[in-house]
Amino acid sequence: MTSPRPEPDTPPRAGEHACADADRVAAEPVAEAFRTWMRACARAGWAGVLGVETVAVTTARGRVTAEPVRARWSVPAYRAAAMDGIAVTTTQLSGGAADGTIRLSPENFDPVDTGDVVPSARDAVVMREQVTFTQSGFAEISGPVIAGRHIRPVGEDIEAGAVVLPAGHRVRPADAAAVAAAGHLSVLVRRRPKVAILPTGDEVRPVGASLAPGEILDTNSIMLAGMAEGAGCSTETLPVAPDVPDQIAAAVAEAARTADLVLVIAGSSAGRDDHTSSVISRLGRVAVHGVAMRPGHPVVLGVVGGAEDNRPGMVAVPVVGIPGYPASAERAFSCFVHPLLRRILETGAAGEHALAARLAAPVVSAEHVEEYLRVRLARVVAPRTGQLNLVAVALPRGAGALGTLAQTEAMLRIPAGDAGYPAGTTVRPVPLHGAAFAGGTTIVTGLRSPATDALTDLLGADRPIAAVHWQPCDEHAAIEALADGLCHAAAVRIDLAGERPDERSAAGLVERLGPVTLLELAHLAGQAEVLVIPAAAFDSRAIEDLRTVPRSIGYRRALRELPGYTGRGAGHETWHGPAADLEDLNSDSDLADGATRCATR
Questions:
Q1: Could you read off the pLDDT of 155-197 as tens digits, one per residue?
Q2: 167 and 103, same structural domain?
Q3: Which of 39, 260, 442, 468 has the fewest C-beta atoms lying within 10 Å of its C-beta?
Q4: Is 7 part of any domain?
Q5: Cis bond leading into 193, ω under 30°?
Q6: d(C-alpha 86, C-alpha 520), whole Å
Q7: Is the whole model's pTM more than 0.85, yes or no?
């Protein structure tokens, strides 16, 4: 048995990954990089153990329990009425009138409201709707009465001594209410980890500053602080440090004296002013510099102080060099900082509930990296079955695209070794907490022209740019995507018969898709540019949005500026389908059975 490969004494160069098992990197680079980092932290003497504190139940929301919380008493603590009505003793209900009505004298029942104590002699509650009171005070009961009915027993909700919340649980509003109901005024929780955030860079300015050419705002600190606070931490954002190694080192060392984790923004790559890796090496040890992931590749994972430090008295504190591009910064936090915080707070692994979705278009990925692809999600109706499908649309990949972060609805992990997936592949993206899930994304495939560009501009005028996804392709591919339920509509050109789309051209679409509506966009040189819309999806939200634009004054005005285009027919809708589906619309037509028929709207 061979001994594990030792880690190099010198930090790896940018783009390299220091780990004890190179084969594991190829298969799972992010997970193995995290394990390598944790091993380095442990060798430095870091244990990740926080103290505890007692907080009031009313302020416990978002805190993590340090021990199991057990009920001090039962809930309910007494037998409680579950309905408004009367409490009765079922053994006294024998006999009754011929119609089944039971008549009770006042001493044989007790009026109760929901939540009242049920007298010990009573074993059932008859709800008010089954009871009629006479003028003499008797109660007449209709319907059966069963022992135990509508009575909440002691401890039905929570039994005394039962665990209300386990240790390592993040307290939600309902959890706090349950703990209070079980008799607690306070709860023992873990101390909040303190995260120090150090932005660096000669060109970086605080938010609110006036910018000169070449300067940028420190928006990453806002994002990272919010993510850390959402994970249960307290944060401190430090003043921006210039690209001077000694000043960065001094700021990191000072932050590490009081923080449980230090995040250094930017300077993690291999440029002339990238000093994060060397600073961490000076103060402690770099465990990983560069991970085979995209975005977020230049991340630095290390530890300052501790057993391997030359500066006595400096405890071991994990430190992360966060890449400067926003998308890379977000991934570095999600892949490395968040798991570390879960380990510190002992909250266990995060529950990622992936959803099955089909790709609207092909996705290509580099096989040597583990990629995290941002996507939006759309609900698309399959034309033949009417079934609602979830479709994923990939967003632009630029690591510096801050707007893409705001528009992302889910994250798709593409493992290292996968070169991508064809359109229609079922994948399992994980929805992002708080994102506008399937928030109205409209997918159209096919023709791109000046008229469809005008449509896209107007459709997306008041929506995030990613909410309108137009996938250019030829007519055959567009119709195939529509038939496969991967888009809401297909943009194509068809011949005109007079002023209307040629019925013979539409017949082929009906044969492939079933009943369709042709929504005309414009006329051009004897042809019509149309959107092909499956009848099954005609009333969906995405289609309703599409239908409003071609009829608008703004769209018609835009067409007048396009050479060769005419607005005749813009907004006109023609339904095409088998004759049997249109009897109510064209009852006077003499087409042969099975022929394609159309109606206009």
A1: 888 889 989 998 888 999 999 999 999 999 999 999 999 999 9
A2: no
A3: 39
A4: no
A5: no
A6: 68
A7: no
| Closest among 240, 385, 265, 383 to 326, alpha carbons compared | 265
In a domain, 350, yes or no: no
- Is 12 part of a structural domain of the chain? no
Residue 130 and residue 222 share a domain: no
**Domain stops at, among 94, 122, 152:** 152
559 occurs within a structural domain: yes
593-594-595-598 Cα dihedral, nearest 10 degrees: 100
Q: How many CA atoms lie within 13 A of 274 on its CB side?
A: 18
- Report the amino acid identity of residue 129: E
Residues 364 and 317 in one domain: no
Residue 174 shares a structural domain with residue 198: no
Sequence-separated (6 or more) residues with CB below 8 Å from residue 236: 194, 195, 196, 197, 255, 259
Return the residue matching tokens 């583990």. Answer: 370
Residue 139 belongs to domain spanning: 80-152
Q: What CATH number does residue 269 fall under?
A: 3.40.980.10
Please report which confidence band the pLDDT of residue 82 belongs to, taking 50, 70 and 90 as the band edges. very high
Pairing of strands 204-205, 151-152: unpaired
User: Pick from 541, 487, 482, 486: which is nearest to 516 by CA?
Assistant: 482
* Alpha carbon distance 514, 535 (integer Å): 8
Residues 6+ apart with CB under 8 A from 98: none
Count of the separate structural domains present in the chain: 4
pLDDT in tens, 504-532: 778 888 888 889 999 999 998 888 899 99
Structure tokens at 571: 């907004």
Nearest to 56 by CA among 163, 157, 179: 179
468 — pLDDT class (breaks 50, 70, 90): confident
Q: Kindly state whether residues 251 and 116 are assigned to the same domain.
A: no
**CA angle, 545 as apex, 450 and 375 as ends, to 5°?**
85
Rounded Cα distance, 508 and 516, in Å: 11
Looking at the fold, whether 395 and 295 belong to one and the same domain comes out as no
| Alpha carbons 391 and 380: distance in angstroms, whole number | 7
